[in-house]
């Protein structure tokens, strides 16, 4: 909040002080403590809205030229502003807040956590970076050897970059769910494994997916207990991650998948999380998720013969869809739907002979809708 300063009175010469007008008790009573009427050069200055704004120091929104230190920003320090990280070496960097955009330039051997970014994160000329990132757009240029645990709403892009490895975002701190909401990001729209290489080289692979069991904290450690970030309760346990852990583009273990769709309601997100817990506890695997709005014509195209019963359910907001995989998953999902979610507005594949078509129809539609 900005500070307000009143204008100091100029010291008058003795002659002027002797000639200063006096006021009667009646005038004082009628005007309170106001300065007497007349030509008054001491009138308080007007205050405009731009005078009341908190002054922004650009240095608060950048980290530059640091080496061998633990730095970053605590929750509430950025509040959706842009942020810049440049020329840092062997640093642990934690940005536990949401931001507008972040650029990272000329950094080497750093471990980085970036809270939800409403727009883009752009790494340029960086090397040996390990990071956890949630963003709308992810892009690298002229980078080497990066290991990224990613949540990205659009297709991640690498350009003139080599040795890039990607895994699914797995992270938690108490304010993270609110930061996702403030950044306008859905925890269910994560295209972490759908990488587009803008400059592919024939016969070479510039990027790959990390092993499924890669522990995040082995790559990006939790804040040191002696650092300024010790108060932030961090977890990289997949079961606590704000973003659901998905298999992504890795080879599926089974040919049987099931489509499970929740229609908008008061507890849609909680229901989706509950389903993931129930299904994965039975040994099945979450492949992918999407949160997307649908129109009546979309419902007819995606759900076909079931469309008539579902059309009225799309009017209250976006749907959340999940693809579960494993032998027997369709029957298991249908049992869970009837036992756990009775009375909830949902769609679940009817049988394993048509379930693959259900999955393809929905996620092809969702990808087109999101421009993927």
TrEMBL record:
SUPFAM superfamilies, alphabetized: C-terminal domain of adenylylcyclase associated protein (SSF69340), Nucleoside diphosphate kinase, NDK (SSF54919)
Lipid-conjugated positions (N-myristoyl glycine): 2
Annotated residues for binding of GTP: 119-120, 136-139
Lipidation (S-palmitoyl cysteine): 3
SMART domains the record matches: CARP
Region spans: Disordered: 1-51
UniProt xrefs under Pfam families: TBCC
GO molecular function: GTP binding; GTPase activator activity
Compartments where found: Cell membrane
Keyword Transferase: no
Keywords: Cell membrane, GTP-binding, GTPase activation, Lipoprotein, Membrane, Myristate, Nucleotide-binding, Palmitate
Compositionally biased spans, kind Low complexity: 21-31
Residue stretches making up the C-CAP/cofactor C-like domain: 45-200
InterPro entries linked to this entry: C-CAP_CF_C-like (IPR017901), CAP/MinC_C (IPR016098), CAP_C_sf (IPR036223), CARP_motif (IPR006599), NDK-like_dom_sf (IPR036850), Tubulin-bd_cofactor_C_dom (IPR012945), XRP2 (IPR039093)
Cellular-component GO terms for this entry: cilium; periciliary membrane compartment
Gene Ontology terms: biological process: post-Golgi vesicle-mediated transport
Record's function text: Acts as a GTPase-activating protein (GAP) for tubulin in concert with tubulin-specific chaperone C, but does not enhance tubulin heterodimerization.
Protein name as catalogued: Protein XRP2
Species this chain originates from: Oreochromis aureus (Israeli tilapia)
Native organism taxonomy: Eukaryota, Metazoa, Chordata, Craniata, Vertebrata
Gene designation: RP2
């Amino acid at each position: 909040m900005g500070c307000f300063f009143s204008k100091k009175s100029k010291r008058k010469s003795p002659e002027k002080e002797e000639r200063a007008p006096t006021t009667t008790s009646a005038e004082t009573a009628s005007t309170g403590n106001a300065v007497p009427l007349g030509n008054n050069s001491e009138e308080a200055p007007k205050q405009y809205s731009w005078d009341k704004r908190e002054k922004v120091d650009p240095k608060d929104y950048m980290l530059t030229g640091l080496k061998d230190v633990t730095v970053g920003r605590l929750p509430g320090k950025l509040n959706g502003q842009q942020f810049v990280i440049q020329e840092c070496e062997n640093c642990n960097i934690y940005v536990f807040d949401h931001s507008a955009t972040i650029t990272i330039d000329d950094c080497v051997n750093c471990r980085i956590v970036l809270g939800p970014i409403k727009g883009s994160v752009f790494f340029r000329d960086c090397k040996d970076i390990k990071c956890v990132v949630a963003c709308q757009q992810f892009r690298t240029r002229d980078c080497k050897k990066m290991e990224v645990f990613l949540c990205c709403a659009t297709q991640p892009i690498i350009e003139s970059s080599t040795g890039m490895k990607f895994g699914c975002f797995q992270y938690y701190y108490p304010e993270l769910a609110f930061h996702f909401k403030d950044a306008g990001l859905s925890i269910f729209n994560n295209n972490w494994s759908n990488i587009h290489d803008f400059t592919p080289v024939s016969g070479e692979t510039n990027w790959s997916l990390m092993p499924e069991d890669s522990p995040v904290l082995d790559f990006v450690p939790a804040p040191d207990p002696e650092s300024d970030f010790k108060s932030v309760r961090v977890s990289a346990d997949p079961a606590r991650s704000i973003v659901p852990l998905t298999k992504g583009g890795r080879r599926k273990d089974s040919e049987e998948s099931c489509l499970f769709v929740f229609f908008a309601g008061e507890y849609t997100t909680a229901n989706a999380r509950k389903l993931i817990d129930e299904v994965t506890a039975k040994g099945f695997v979450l492949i992918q998720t999407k949160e997307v709005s649908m129109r009546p014509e979309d419902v007819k195209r995606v759900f076909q013969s079931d469309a008539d019963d579902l059309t009225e359910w799309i009017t209250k907001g976006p749907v959340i869809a999940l693809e579960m995989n494993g032998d027997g998953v369709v029957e298991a999902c249908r049992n869970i739907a009837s036992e756990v979610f009775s009375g909830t507005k949902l769609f679940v594949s009817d049988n394993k002979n048509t379930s693959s078509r259900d999955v393809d129809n929905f996620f092809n539609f969702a990808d087109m809708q999101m421009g993927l």
